[in-house]
Design a protein that fits this description.
Largest sheet: 4 strands, mixed
Strand content: 35-45%
Radius of gyration: 13 Å
């Protein structure tokens, strides 16, 4: 999976099946700034009703990315047990 920008500068993820836009962005919305960050970009999928809710963030590892999103969901959205179903390290 690759992290890219549209013509208007918005971020999207290019996959084998097409393009996906992250639903929640926990980092800079600038591809240039994400590339300059020493941490790597990750995509974390949260189980929703009929589709995954996609979280984009920069982190040091897959485990830390999962923990960061779980903490966000517990503190900001008051979910007791977030259902995180996948984590992917993104390329540019």
């Amino acid at each position: 999976m690759k992290l890219k920008t549209n013509f208007d500068g918005s971020l999207y993820i290019e996959t084998k099946l097409g393009h996906e836009k992250p639903h929640v962005i926990h980092c800079s919305e600038s591809l240039y700034e994400i590339k300059q960050d020493t941490a790597s970009p990750y995509l974390v999928a949260e189980e929703c009703t009929n589709f995954p809710r996609l979280h984009l963030l920069t982190s040091w590892s897959e485990d830390e990315a999962l923990q960061d999103v779980a903490t966000y969901l517990q503190e900001k959205e008051e979910e007791n047990e977030p259902q995180l179903i996948a984590v992917f390290k993104l390329n540019f």
